[in-house]
Design goal:
Elements (H helix, E strand, L loop, with lengths): L1 H19 L2 E8 H5 L2 H13 L1 E8 L1 H10 L4 E4 L2 H9 L7 E13 L12 H11 L3 E3 L5 H10 L14 E3 L4 H11 L2 E5 H6 L6 E5 L6 E8 L10 H11 L2 H9 L1 E2 L2 E2 L2 E2 L3
Parallel strand pairs: 1-2, 1-3, 5-6, 5-7
Antiparallel strand pairs: 3-9, 4-7, 4-8, 4-9, 4-12, 10-11
Length: 269
């Protein structure tokens, strides 16, 4: 009898534990979002409010979109509008919801050997870097940051779609690792503002150029299409989206600063 009672108690604990366990969702996010530290602020609050465990897959935008296409995640949070729209047009996502934005900035040695400080446009800044053959580090990883950088290089005379000269180094890495490489080389690099503000190993690097409207950097949430992948957690993806676009997330995002500087601006509708 005691053994039966013990087994029944263990079974009850196991069943109750399964019931009490939080739901979970797989979300592909960019390295720039993760490196900013904002996920460390948002995820515990999501767990507390929704009893939802968000499992992050931290990759570049291109890889996040590929994970979505394959149905390996339930939703993605990325920052490359053109690629996102292609994702939707291909039927891989249900819709696109803008959540927040910041901007891209150009970082470089404090001595600024290419003289980009004070120029009027991002393309002009890159033209000066190319003209001076100054060391430049690119993520080179098909991320949203890399896609934006490649688009800007197309406007630089004598370079082509992507520079191939020795002064240009594509490292094929995330934002934090790429910034570390640039710091070690004392080279120019394009980064999102949040990652730059959070980055601790700045060395002699400093922010030299920002403010061109073309450097606008919008982050959007896209649920994966359950008609293509019936196993994706449609209801949980909607639940998470509504939270990210809601007042609690707005306050947390709006209050998240480093050194008094805002890292993201909430603009969900």
């Amino acid at each position: 009898m005691n053994l039966k009672k013990t087994l029944a108690a263990v079974l009850a604990i196991l069943v109750y534990g399964q019931i009490a366990m939080a739901d979970d969702i797989r979300l592909a996010v960019t390295t720039s979002f993760h490196n900013s530290g904002l996920s460390d602020v948002l995820l515990p609050e999501i767990k507390a409010d929704l009893d939802l465990e968000v499992k992050l897959l931290v990759v570049g935008t291109g890889q996040a979109l590929r994970l979505g296409k394959a149905g390996d995640v339930d939703a993605i949070l990325v920052h490359s509008r053109k690629a996102e729209l292609a994702f939707l047009e291909g039927g891989f996502g249900t819709h696109r919801r803008e959540i927040m934005f910041n901007d891209f900035v150009l970082i470089g040695p404090s001595a600024d050997p290419a003289g980009i400080a004070g120029v009027k446009t991002a393309v002009e800044a890159l033209q000066k870097i190319a003209g001076a053959k100054a060391s430049f580090v690119s993520r080179g990883d098909d991320s949203g940051t890399h896609k934006k950088e490649a688009m800007l290089w197309q406007g630089v005379k004598g370079v082509g779609d992507v520079p191939t000269q020795g002064w240009y180094r594509a490292v094929g890495a995330g934002m934090g690792a790429s910034l570390n490489t640039a710091s070690g080389m004392n080279a120019y690099i394009m980064a999102d503002r949040a990652s730059w503000l959070k980055f601790g190993n700045k060395g002699d690097l400093t922010l030299l150029f920002s403010g061109d409207p073309v450097l606008f950097n919008q982050y959007a949430y896209l649920p994966v299409n359950p008609e293509l992948h019936p196993h994706v957690k449609k209801e949980l993806a909607v639940k998470l989206e509504n939270w990210l676009a809601g007042p609690k997330a707005e306050k947390l995002i709006s209050d998240y600063k480093i050194g008094g500087e805002l890292l993201f601006t909430f603009n969900a509708k």
